[in-house]
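Input.
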Amino acid sequence: MWANAAKKVHTYKSASDAFHDASDEAVASANKPGKKLDLASSSDAARAARAMQEAISGEPLTDGSSVVSHEEEVFARVRLHFGRSKDQYRYSLSEGTFRFLGEEEAAGKSSAFFVFTEDGRYCVKSVDPSEAQMLARVIVDYEQYVLKHKDTLLPKFYGLYEVRLSHRRKPLWMMVQGNVLGGRTGVIQRFDLKGSTHGRKASAKEWAKGRSSVLKDLDFVLSSCALLGATPAAKQQWEQWVQRMGTDSAWLASQGLIDYSLLLGFSSCKPELLKKPLSHVNRLEVQSASLGDLSSSIPAEEALVVYVGIIDCLMPYNWFKRCENVVCGAFFSADISCQPPVAYATRFINFVRKLVSPPGELQEFTTKRQMSSQRLLGYIVGEFGRKDAQHVVKYLTLLVITGGLGRLAVFLSSQRKLK
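Output.
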């Protein structure tokens, strides 16, 4: 296992810890992502969900599976802090059905899949070992941070599980977190915003998904969306959230984390549905005109609601990311997504603050800044310092050579086939 992380684990072995909570007032979500997951199927997602369901409910595990809960005591305290008791958590994750969202529907670059609980409160996401290790490393600091900042917009991390399936050599790592869009109404449009411009535009394939598509920064800017039409109360709420996100992004920078996004989910509903608050999501009511080109999809008698939350915040600014920042920044644009933690946080919060500006100002703010490739060496020195610059150049040269050798191998292989 890891040297300094995830030392405290809880392994589920029997049904002695079964429970029932009839008093849990689960909120049924209208945001039904993906499709209903058939727990009887043989897919990895179904087997992992079934194993977690059995383990959390205290039932004997089937199919030779095993589930290990990492840092269970810390996550239990975090769940209580966010108002989720042990029984409530178990009830949501062990009762009813799940909905499945595969990598094709998720619009992300990773091969992660998502499983949502029927009540819409929780998202169970598959993560790679490096993300699991990072969560285990920061969870204690995260607990202290959220205890001090109760109204944080950071993801609500509820659990980390190592699921071993009998037919797989390597385990599946599953992370349970709050569902940012787990409200009572369906989402009309959603945006994944990083504050960057380079490559931050959804593909035609993504747009073709309709309401399930996840759009990006340039899509937001070009569609003339803005939160300018927010009610005075909503504007005040947004300013408070900007302050929170400033504190949140500063904490992420202190942990050396980058690549996180602000998820905005636009929804419409009858005004009476907004009277009862939801403690597990962040939302505000704005005017329909705020959607710009998308406002035609909102009935005049309905209120527009925006769900807000920070997501995907477990990427460290490691050696690989530093090289990505240098190469991509030099050859493509200085406004690429990958930036050092402090610079990433600064750009992120500046962009978030501009979301209440008129669309014209937002477009001007997000104008691309190009960088000449002739400045590559100077950029390397500026990023790594003169002492490490020569090592970076050697590493980048090795990447070029390796890529060239790879292409040569493919060419030689094709020549053999021709013979």
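The chain has a mean pLDDT of 75.
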